[in-house]
Amino acid sequence: MMKFLTSLLLLGVISPLWPLGQNPLPGDPFVIVNKETNEAAYINENKVQTVYRAATGKTEELTPEGLFTITVKASDPYYRKKDIPGGDPNNPLGTRWIGFDAENSDGRTYGIHGTNNPSSIGTYASLGCIRLQNEHVEALYDVVPIGTKVLVLSTDLSFEDIAKEYGAIE
């Protein structure tokens, strides 16, 4: 049993999916969500690569703020609350789910996801998640590995200034 647990521990330590040490480091992938502007930025290779319009919580407290870690990714996610399968046009999660560990959750409660309501993007419309257009969440999904840090905040600072403050840009 001890050998099995040691093997699992070593697997977790050497896994390329889970960056080690302080994150983000300059050049690492990093996602910033600014609730004040309803935008999400993808930072990589020491620069802001892309900025997307987003939808955040209907009220300020619905979308938690802080530095989180992506723990789950799913293509055509299943919507548990209303038993709607992935790929169904009525599924409010759209085509991708990028879950992070906000408020001690396991990545299945809060996330960045697509939407079946594209007109909600740019507004305060969600129950706590961050919504993107399906094509945008698909692009982000393809470039952020599990273990990527997600920063959610409300600020008037630029994405570049925030990324520098958090060490993602030198």
Structural features, described:
One of its GO terms (biological process) is regulation of cell shape. InterPro entries: LD-transpeptidase, LD_TPept_cat_dom, Transpep_catalytic_dom. Residues 29-153 form the L,D-TPase catalytic domain. With 170 residues, the protein is of the alpha/beta class. The chain has helices spanning 2-14, 134-143, 159-165; strands at residues 30-34, 39-44, 47-53, 56-57, 66-75, 96-100, 110-113, 124-126, 130-131, 149-153. The longest helix is centred in the first third of the chain and has 13 residues, at 2-14. Mean pLDDT is 89; it is low at 1-20.
Based on the coordinates given, report the CATH architecture: Beta Barrel
* DSSP summary, beta strand count: 10
Q: And the CATH topology?
A: L,D-transpeptidase catalytic domain-like
> How many structural units, i.e. domains?
1
Give the count of helical stretches: 3
Major sheet attributes: 8 strands, mixed
CATH class: Mainly Beta
Low-confidence stretches: 1-20
Distance between the termini: 45 Å
Which structural class do the helices and strands define? alpha/beta
Q: Rg from C-alpha positions?
A: 16 Å
Strand arrangement across the biggest beta sheet:
3-2-1-10-5-6-7-9
Strand content: 25-35%
Element string (H = helix, E = strand): HEEEEEEEEEHEH
Shape: globular
pLDDT averaged over residues? 89
**Percentage of residues assigned to helices:** 10-25%
CATH superfamily: L,D-transpeptidase catalytic domain-like
